TrEMBL record:
Catalyzes the condensation of ATP and 5-phosphoribose 1-diphosphate to form N'-(5'-phosphoribosyl)-ATP (PR-ATP). Has a crucial role in the pathway because the rate of histidine biosynthesis seems to be controlled primarily by regulation of HisG enzymatic activity. One of its GO terms (molecular function) is ATP binding. HAMAP family: HisG_Long. The keyword Calcium does not apply. Keywords: Amino-acid biosynthesis, ATP-binding, Cytoplasm, Glycosyltransferase, Histidine biosynthesis, Magnesium, Metal-binding, Nucleotide-binding, Transferase. This is ATP phosphoribosyltransferase. Belongs to the ATP phosphoribosyltransferase family. Long subfamily. It is found in: Cytoplasm. Residues 208-280 form the Histidine biosynthesis HisG C-terminal domain. The gene is hisG.
Amino acid sequence: MRLKIAIQKKGRLSEQSLSLLRECGIRISNGGKLKAEASNFPVDVLYLRDDDIPQYVADGVADVGILGENVVLEKEKQVRVEEKLGFGKCRLSLAVRREESYNGPSWFNGKKIASTYPVILNNYLRGQGINAAIEEISGSVEIAPGIGLADGVCDIVSTGSTLLMNGLREVETILHSEAVLISNPGLRGEKQTILSRLRFRIQAVQNARQNKYILLNAPDEALDTICALLPGMKSPTILPLAEKGWSSVHSVVKEDTFWEVIDGLRRAGAQGILVCPIEKMFL
Ligand code: PRT
Ligand code: ZN
């Protein structure tokens, strides 16, 4: 029995989806255009357009898939979100012409909005009690106001430079998105077991990416303050140095609070701080 995993064939998520699988220790041959088999783990990879992945997973053509949460929400298929994967981060936003005097979401009443996300946009407008027309288009949404097709747009934004270059201004964020692992809710037996093993590996890779290993030297009188800054996985390891009155402290710090922690450690008297990447981390 093998688990069929659908990933984006060509696009923003392709490379990182493959890297994640590789970091999970899964060896995938480069050969196939539509399909590839892993040699050391019971999965087959199917390369698809991201828009088709929810349907294929819901139908059981693929068992699991990796794609943007934005597409999962837009397609409204019967699939389960198993993991957030921490890459492909973006937001779906509303934007208007830079010179428009925008005064809040009700500005869109009676207006026309161009988007490739009509379902999410419609849900948002209904939730806000706004009556606007949706112009569904398949690409290049950002040019719609300039050519007189719509008054505003609802599109994916990451750096914001596409909006800027087209004379548009982001005014509301409808949702934040990142790549996710989805599954067919009917998976049972051996396939479910393979999925659990895959998720276990993905979590180890994710934890490793989100944490750093830290080593430092500290005078013994500063240890209490330093340990309070470095809770670690259970608690920090403290080893005596050859020099009397000094210890070496080893722990794990979160990537996102990392610089603040370093500042605190230096204030507390830590010296010789080393920070190393973690290859895998099992909680
Ligand atoms: O061919 P296929 O249908 O598989 O690919 P696609 O063209 O539909 O999707 P693709 O590869 O562009 O994006 C895949 C997924 O990446 C999306 O569904 C999002 O989840 C995620 N993602 C992350 C993005 C962006 N960042 C992004 N910046 N998807 C699209 N964009 C586009 C956006 O549409 C706009 O045109 O980039 C432009 C905005 O970028 P900034 O940086 O200028 O703001
Ligand atoms: Zn697509």
